[in-house]
Amino acid sequence: MKYPEPISKLIDSYMMLPGIGRKTATRMAFFTLGMEKDQVQEFADNLISAKTDLKSCKICGNITTEEICPICSDKSRDQSTILVVEQAKDIMSLDDMNGYNGLYHVLGGVLSPVDGIGPEDLNIKLLLNRLKQNQAVKELIIATNATPEGEATAQYLAKLVKPAGIKVTRLAHGLAVGSDIEYADEMTLKSAVLGRREI
Amino acid sequence: MFVKELKLQNYRNYESLDVNFSPAINVFLGENAQGKTNLLEAMYFLALTRSHRTSNDKDLIKWGSEFARISGTVIKDNSSRLKLDLVISKSGKKAKLNNLEQRKLSSYIGNLNVVLFSPEDLSIVKGNPGIRRKFIDMEFGQMSAQYLKTMSQFRSVLKQRNAYLKKLQHHQAKDMIYLDVLSDQFSAYCAEVVFSRLQFLQKLQTHIEKIHANITEDNEKLKIVYNTFFSTDGKSLENIYDTFKDNFKKNYQREIQRGVTLFGPHRDDIKFLVNEKNVQDFGSQGQQRSVALSLKLAEVELIKDQVGDYPILLLDDVLSELDHKRQTHLLSSIKKGIQTFITTTSIDDVDPELVKDPNILNITNGKVQQEEI
Questions:
Q1: Which chain B residue's Cα is nearest to A190?
Q2: Cβ neighbours for B312, distance < 8 A, ≥ 6 positions apart
Q3: Given an 8 Å threshold on Cβ–Cβ distance, is A187 in contact with B146?
Q4: pLDDT for A138 beyond 70
């Protein structure tokens, strides 16, 4: 039997979300039917609002409701370091740790010719202009993921920025905090040994 | 190690099968096209998640079924049991170790080691370089999960570099700094792959030389040589990395023109020298056959060295192909207590002197029957 059109359309919509298959989507759709009308209205409004009211920050590319995001406008932050991330959501993880008080820059992805993403598709120009205009920046910390693509993107940025005399660093890879050496795979161990530090 | 039990579901011409094996010699006896080789293939697939006959996994699913399942119970030398499970469906395959799903196949492969002897082994010596590369990658892969991981990253970096060279070729990109970055990164993976291949080949060499001398009654000295665009003799990992890096720098224009990566392990080859002569070009058919046999026998010993236990042997229709002398050499390996599976149409092909008390399984049309002794 086929579902009536309104619900089958709703199921199709839920299926657009990552990690949601038909069964889960159907469950979600029927759950939605059982919700209060104003709850559903709020849900729909939130979807629209996330798409229309959010912009990307003119300086760093982070998501924000203003022209300039709260991090960039916060003058109490350390203006001499910029931490470069792939996605805006990475900022949330990094800023919640309370171990970094500098600025951020969102690339919006990593270089990947296979997916047709080249330097011009990322916020790289924005970053270079930012460095040119703001001479206070002394260090660029690159926090792209530890994938081959993330690594190549980091190397690329380093090659562009280093000639300007800015220190470029990369997040350490290796043993996870609280983990046992016994359970680490060979590649992780290798990068942990390569990235060792003096104590 | 040995396979104690094999279960199949919707696999090739087997709708459902549950069979127990002897830890010594098992003979699959039956007419042609009854499913003897399918059983060997199932065990090969259970070990390596790839078939030696087809590159399309869907071929393994019984006609009209949605999925195929292969499971096996393996007993390791310390008598621990390991349950391997593979489900092949149209959307891919899932692997389980002791009922625990493995996210990456590289953590699954290598738990059951197999060496297959088949009439097609000759093509490793005679055939094109691609066959030899596939052979070394498969075999080194089942000995080292690290090698499998490096290979898979190597392939993804190669893909990226090729995609970018294509863009440069079609003038859709012009950033040479990015090509530098990709080339340096690729060089590091090339060096890693070439270096591990050299290490494995060196170990293989010590075994193959001895075995081949034995087979040829000391008439032939067999040497395996890794063949790339530079001499790898005595080179360290750093040396190899630098050689690749410099070489790419020199050949940017050529590579951009062709839009593809022209150097690297994906283009390398191995050569078999018998008494200093390349057996592929100068060897007789008989010599080539002996080299192929020595190679497989050396692999058996190398696996024993690397993983600490002998692999299981799968002999696909080879006994009728080998003369008595070579058969003796092959079967003398079995004497070491290695679990062996032999397919044959007639038990007469198997020398009763060499194969004692085999567990004979009659195969008819996807059904297996244990012979009463």
A1: B146
A2: B1, B2, B3, B43, B112, B113, B114, B115, B338, B339, B340, B341
A3: yes
A4: yes
| Residues contacting A66, CB < 8 A, separation 6+ | A55, A57, A73
pLDDT digits (tens, 9 = 90+) for B208-264: 999 999 888 899 999 999 999 999 988 999 999 999 999 999 999 999 999 999 999
Residue B14 bridge partners (DSSP):
B11
ipTM metric: 0.80
- Domains belonging to chain B, first-starting first, are 1-113+309-373 (3.40.50.300), 137-306 (1.20.1050.90)
Please answer yes or no on whether B149 and A112 come within 8 Å at the CB atom: no
Neighbours of B349 (CB within 10 A): 17
Structural domains of chain A ordered from first start: 5-52 (1.10.8.420), 74-194 (3.40.1360.10)
Q: C-alpha distances in angstroms, A88 versus A97, A107, A158, B281?
A: 15, 8, 21, 59
Instruction: State which H helix or E strand residue B176 sits in.
Output: helix B176-215
Contact with chain B for residue A199, Cβ under 8 A: no
Contact A152 B159 (CB under 8 A): no
Question: What are φ and ψ of residue B344, in 5° steps?
Answer: -160, 155
Length of chain A: 199
* Short-list A151, A134, A149, CA closest to A75: A134
In the beta sheet, which residues pair with residue B313?
Answer: B115, B340
**Once rounded to an integer, what is the mean pLDDT over residues B129-144?**
93
Closest A-chain CA to B178: A156
Q: Is the Cβ pair A155, B184 closer than 8 Å?
A: yes
Alpha-carbon distance values, A183 to A187, B13, B108, B151, B272 (Å): 12, 41, 16, 22, 40
Q: Which amino acid is at A101?
A: N
Q: How distant is the Cα of A97 from the closest Cα of chain B, in angstroms?
A: 29
Instruction: Find the closest chain B residue to A187 by CA distance.
Output: B146
